[in-house]
Design brief:
The protein has about 160 residues and is mainly α. It has helices spanning about 5-15, 25-35, 45, 50-80, 85-125, 130-145, 150-164; strands at about 15-20, 50. It starts with 6 loop residues before the first helix and ends with a helix.
């Protein structure tokens, strides 16, 4: 029986175009390091692309879903006050909407990055849970870069270090 998608999964599948190609080990390790350091993760390494048009449509729908009922509730009171206050309020709300889109876009990218990293993690490291081993493997990966381990030997190097 197929598992039902959550609202978050539906949003992510609507807004992002994802590759069916598996994420390569080195790309996963680089993306994990970037994610743990709260850096922007390279979307091409993880195989996803944001559809900006769909993100705007979704964000606009959310904003309208909040503002339209709110404006119906507050219209009579706002009509009675000075128009200068209404203008200032409109400017502040407009600024908040535009600033809010950047936060919304960052949340979308961070959420899909974590989901793709966890999914790829379960393929490359099935016996090492992501939450428990992500920082430890990140340290091992950094050491492998210093030791100039080749891509071919990287997986064996990491697994050997985990076994120690």
């Amino acid at each position: 029986m197929p598992k039902e998608k959550t609202l978050k999964q539906k949003i992510l599948s609507y807004v992002f175009i994802t590759s069916k190609q598996p994420v390569l080990l080195k790309d996963l390790l680089v993306a994990n390091r970037q994610f743990n350091e709260r850096m922007d993760v390279d979307a091409s390494r993880l195989g996803f692309k944001l559809s900006l048009t769909k993100a705007y449509i979704l964000y606009t729908s959310i904003v309208l879903g909040i503002l339209v009922p709110l404006s119906f509730l507050t219209h009579k009171e706002l009509a009675k006050i000075d128009s200068h206050i209404s203008i200032i309020g409109a400017v502040v709300i407009t600024a908040a909407i535009f600033i809010g889109f950047n936060y919304f876009k960052d949340w979308l990218i961070a959420t899909i990055s974590k989901d793709v990293i966890k999914k790829s993690w379960s393929i490359h490291f099935p016996f090492f849970p992501y939450d428990e081993y992500s920082s430890k493997i990140e340290e091992i990966f950094e050491q492998s870069l210093k030791d100039e381990i080749t891509k071919k030997d990287l997986e064996r190097y990491i697994l050997d270090k985990l076994a120690d």
